[in-house]
């Protein structure tokens, strides 16, 4: 479904009132296929929700090594520090 919507021009960076993007939703659902498709469609992995969570931080909170690997393979800097100076590896430890 995600691939179909993206092929029809859906914006992978559109967010709701909580700042949740399709990528954040895909990480919540632990959907490897959706995460890959969205990153392939140029979803911004650094966009944060209104509570300051981004896709990598959420994946670390869920201890989802497969999603973290997909993010890393897509070029996401997993060592990038958040506003509060907490690296995602510190959060997942």
TrEMBL record:
Gene3D superfamilies: Ankyrin repeat-containing domain. SMART domains: ANK. Signal peptide: none annotated. InterPro entries: Ankyrin_rpt, Ankyrin_rpt-contain_sf. SUPFAM superfamilies: Ankyrin repeat (SSF48403). It comes from the Bacteria. This is Ankyrin repeat protein. It comes from Leptospira noguchii str. 2001034031.
């Amino acid at each position: 479904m995600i691939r179909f919507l993206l092929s029809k021009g859906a914006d992978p960076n559109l967010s709701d009132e909580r700042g949740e993007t399709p990528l954040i939703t895909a990480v919540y659902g632990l959907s490897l296929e959706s995460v890959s498709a969205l990153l392939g469609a140029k979803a911004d992995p650094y966009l944060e929700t209104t509570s300051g969570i981004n896709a990598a931080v959420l994946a670390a909170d869920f201890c989802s090594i497969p999603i973290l690997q997909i993010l890393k393979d897509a070029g996401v800097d997993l060592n990038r520090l958040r506003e509060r100076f907490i690296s995602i590896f510190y959060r997942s430890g």
